[in-house]
Backbone:
């Protein structure tokens, strides 16, 4: 039985559109809300009470099939009955009203929650976890871990010098570090000041914010279809790796770590080959640079593996997560990455047990129901259908990509205007989709998306493309 | 009339109970050992059994019952297992907020506005809007971003487009797209530990060491002489000296200063207080130089000092531009009132979650409870009583308790002890005698009980402190 049938026997059979989306009720509520909260990015007002499974309900009662899922952060559908149970346990209520300062006063069940939850799906070799609050937070804490690690190694057991102690209070070197974090062109790692300095997706993400002068290396620009561009793509991998080697060899400041997404999501769903990722791993190792894999968007099972980088057979030094896990943080192995002394990697909450509990419940469901197998099967079917569509609408659907990467599928359209029109059109027909990069359309359904949902998605996409090409 | 604690925590213990020779005891130690295999436990005081903790008492894994005057680094305001909050935790709204966590900027839920208005209702005087974060550091960094967006768009013309030079340079992390702007913070300040906030934080080297930092200015935070009575002239001069330094930075710093950020009471940095003249002086200087004033109420806010927002006691006029919050609120973010602190375009101040309805719901419930149950007048009374008792202790042990401070600010009090070593010994002995306490700054002991701490808890605290100090 498809998992959606098991979880959601009452799931709608199809989208149901009563009004345009956003309709009058959404618009009225948005107008009101905008007097208290910035609503310029709002798609519509959602009615989560009446959303179910793969369908999101809006304030007008429209039911949309959701292949965007709160920007890739809802893993198991809306109002998943197993998660509702987890949210109603005594453990959850206790976690909610007694939120601890986890590093100082961890709860007696925190070890068990981590062991049975997050750590049970930690990537091979990374057996410790540092919990955080958001994807940006997780990445920045990973940067801190790497910067402290490299400085501690350099210090070789000596205490901080007086000069370090004095200069750091003035934000000057040597106490304040001149080490850097390397990232890749088109990468997205968050929007706080450290993470934003490694984000290179779009100007609008970065403008007007002071930044650290940190280096980038090129991320490959892959040509599609892959089978027709084998040589060119190989040459592109080599060019990018050579450039990375050059930056790692010549950058005037020590590079503490490199951070990379297994698929650059916000930056346009840019994929790269296993060869490229293996090359990045080898080069960072060769130059004594730590490797952080950012699985904030890719992780949590959407790719058909728990973590997308597992498709490439590499082992990073740190791996960050958030979104679908609901809990944010990073996995690591080397205890020195926790800092050479306490209170260096520290803050009040250091995570949130209520999030660790929900992560545990999500992970339990993924394992219990073999959801990744379902994702791979459904995704293969979905990719096949989209290939047919690409052939039929070859002027509108470009660079279809993500084969063999579960639901991590995207395609480009000829321009941003056409893409935006397409997304809006699909929404009017009852399919909620998101964009990425300048001209990309990304599919980010939950792990409960089945073949019957694929058929509906494909039907809407095809009908919208057909209308667009007739105009 | 019964106190809040008596009414809502009828099963609260009548005093601490320590059953092991050490804290943590054998069970706690074993639990720390296994947890340390997967999670850094070097800061762990003890493992806590939250299901057994109640009201002002925290219970550890060995069954030790401690009076808690630290409360999760000042973040539990309403006591452990507050029955009125448990109701909220079990509500349908909360359950949905947990399982259907939205990307609030894109798909706010039908019940979101009400939740948000329940928080804005108790916003500091003069503030109208809120933007949510997920931690105190996050809240402060989001506030900085709002300020920088505003600074540059004021320069550019609020709705004018970006220049091609800006759009190209920004992808290389260079000006003019990434401008060289600064924010001024104060010596001994603590605003968080992410990259921009760590650049503002000046509490201890350990909080910042080995992190790349922005080259941003500081000015000195006043260092008052205590007792305040009798030192009025000296302290007034100190205000003037510090304000002159702030003005000097505005005149002479190499890059424009877009904002000043300040805590009403510098907490991590040693519980350093300042007065109305100082804060009004900051307001006047920021207005004069076209900079924003950010008040960081992460630790002081949500009633901890006997009023909802500590800076309100200074009647800063016009009100500060942004006020950040977290901790006791359980939700994080910043309040503001100028609509131009919202960027002209969408997706500038943006992230996946933009807050968390679970926290916002809890926040509204906490503030409603504080107001409906009149917790703050009671807390102010408890604070004065507590202060007078500590004053007596100070007189008894003038060599040990110094610079007692925080009079009239609820239970947000602190004192200094002769050395960091003495302090460590004092805190450890307090704990084994049944009181959980925290430190701050170099030699400070800070009292951070919840808002439900009453006179009877003071009467338990004081004799234990007296016994411990006498033994030192």
Residues:
């Amino acid at each position: 039985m498809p998992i959606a049938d098991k979880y959601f026997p009452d799931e709608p059979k199809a989208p149901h559109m009563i009004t345009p989306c956003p309709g009058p009720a959404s618009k009225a509520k948005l107008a009101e809300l905008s007097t208290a909260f910035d609503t310029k990015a709002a798609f519509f007002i959602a009615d989560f009470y009446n959303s179910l499974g793969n369908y999101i309900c809006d304030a007008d009662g429209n039911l949309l099939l959701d292949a965007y899922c709160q920007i890739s952060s809802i893993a198991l559908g809306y109002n998943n009955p197993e998660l509702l149970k987890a949210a109603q346990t005594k453990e959850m209520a206790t976690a909610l009203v007694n939120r601890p300062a986890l590093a100082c006063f961890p709860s007696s069940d925190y070890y068990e929650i981590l062991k049975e939850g997050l750590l049970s799906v930690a990537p091979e070799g990374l057996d410790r976890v540092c919990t955080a609050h958001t994807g940006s937070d997780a990445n920045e804490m990973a940067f801190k871990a790497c910067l402290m690690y490299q400085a501690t190694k350099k210090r070789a057991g000596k205490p901080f010098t007086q000069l370090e102690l004095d200069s750091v209070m003035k934000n000057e070197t040597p106490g304040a570090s001149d080490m850097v974090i390397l990232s890749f062109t088109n990468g997205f790692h968050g929007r706080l000041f450290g993470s934003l300095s490694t984000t290179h997706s779009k100007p609008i993400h970065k403008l007007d914010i002071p930044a650290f002068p940190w280096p980038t290396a090129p991320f490959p620009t892959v040509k599609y279809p892959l089978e027709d561009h084998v040589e060119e793509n190989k040459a592109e991998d080599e060019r990018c790796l050579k450039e990375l080697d050059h930056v790692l060899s010549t950058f005037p400041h020590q590079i503490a770590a490199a951070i990379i997404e297994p698929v650059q999501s916000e930056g346009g769903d840019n994929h790269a080959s296993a060869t490229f990722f293996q090359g990045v791993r080898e080069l960072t190792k060769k130059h004594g640079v730590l490797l952080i894999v950012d699985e904030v968007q890719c992780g949590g099972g959407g790719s058909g593996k728990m973590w997308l980088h597992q498709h490439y057979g590499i082992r990073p030094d740190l791996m960050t997560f958030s979104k679908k896990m609901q809990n944010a943080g990073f996995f690591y192995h080397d205890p020195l990455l926790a800092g050479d002394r306490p209170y260096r990697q520290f803050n009040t909450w250091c995570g949130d047990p209520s999030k660790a509990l929900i992560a545990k419940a999500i992970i339990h469901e993924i394992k219990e129901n073999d959801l990744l197998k379902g994702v791979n099967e459904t995704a293969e079917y979905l990719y096949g259908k989209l290939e047919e569509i690409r052939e039929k609408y070859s002027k509108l659907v470009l660079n279809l990509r993500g084969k063999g990467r579960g639901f991590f599928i995207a395609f480009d359209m000829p321009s941003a205007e056409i893409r935006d029109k397409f997304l809006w059109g699909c929404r009017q027909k009852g399919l909620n989709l998101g964009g990425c990069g300048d001209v990309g359309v990304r599919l980010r359904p939950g792990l409960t998306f089945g073949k019957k949902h694929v058929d509906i998605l494909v039907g809407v996409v095809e009908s919208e493309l057909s209308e667009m090409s007739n105009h | 009339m019964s106190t809040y604690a008596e009414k809502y925590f009828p099963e609260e213990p009548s005093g601490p109970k320590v059953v092991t020779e050490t804290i943590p005891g054998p069970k706690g130690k074993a639990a720390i050992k296994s947890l340390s295999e997967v999670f850094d436990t070097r800061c762990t005081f003890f493992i806590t059994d939250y299901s057994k903790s109640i009201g002002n008492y925290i219970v550890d894994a060995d069954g030790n019952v401690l009076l808690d005057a630290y409360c999760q680094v000042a973040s539990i305001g309403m006591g452990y297992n507050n029955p009125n909050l448990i109701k909220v935790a079990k509500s349908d709204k909360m359950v949905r907020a947990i399982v259907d966590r939205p990307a609030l900027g894109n798909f706010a839920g039908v019940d979101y506005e009400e939740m948000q208005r329940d928080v804005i209702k108790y916003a500091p005087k003069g503030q109208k809007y809120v933007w949510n974060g997920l931690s105190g550091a996050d809240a402060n960094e989001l506030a900085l971003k709002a300020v920088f967006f505003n600074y540059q768009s004021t320069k550019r013309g609020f709705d004018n487009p970006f220049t091609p030079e800006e759009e190209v340079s920004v992808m290389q992390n260079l000006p003019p797209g990434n401008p060289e702007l600064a924010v001024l913070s104060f010596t001994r300040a603590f605003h968080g530990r992410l990259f921009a906030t760590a650049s503002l934080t000046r509490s201890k080297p350990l909080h910042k060491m080995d992190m790349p930092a922005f080259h941003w200015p500081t000015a000195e935070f006043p260092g008052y002489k205590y007792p305040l009575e009798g030192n009025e002239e000296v302290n007034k001069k100190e205000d003037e000296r510090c304000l002159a330094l702030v003005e000097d930075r505005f005149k002479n710093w190499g890059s424009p200063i877009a904002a000043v950020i300040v805590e009403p009471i510098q907490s991590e940095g040693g519980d350093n207080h300042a007065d109305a003249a100082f804060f009004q002086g900051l307001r006047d200087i920021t207005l004069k130089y076209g900079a924003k004033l950010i008040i960081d109420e992460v630790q002081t806010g949500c009633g901890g000092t006997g009023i909802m927002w500590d800076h309100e006691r200074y009647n800063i006029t016009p009100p500060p531009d942004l006020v950040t919050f977290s901790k006791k609120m359980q939700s994080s973010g910043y309040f503001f009132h100028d609509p131009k602190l919202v960027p002209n375009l969408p997706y500038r101040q943006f992230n996946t979650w933009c807050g968390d309805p679970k926290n916002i719901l809890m926040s509204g419930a906490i503030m409603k409870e504080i107001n409906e149950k009149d917790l703050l007048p009671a807390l102010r009374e408890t604070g004065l009583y507590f202060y007078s008792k500590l004053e007596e202790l100070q007189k008894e042990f003038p060599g040990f308790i110094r610079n007692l401070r925080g009079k009239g600010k609820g239970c947000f009090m602190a004192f200094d002890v002769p050395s960091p070593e003495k302090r460590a010994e004092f805190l450890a002995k307090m704990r084994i005698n049944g009181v959980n306490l925290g430190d701050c700054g170099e030699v400070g002991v800070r009292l951070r009980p919840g808002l439900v701490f009453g006179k009877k808890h003071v009467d338990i605290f004081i004799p234990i402190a007296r016994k411990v100090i006498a033994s030192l």
Chain A touches chain B through 121 residues (CB under 8 Å). The mean pLDDT of chain A is 97. The first strand of chain A starts at residue 55 and ends at 57. The two ends of chain A are 41 Å apart (CA to CA).
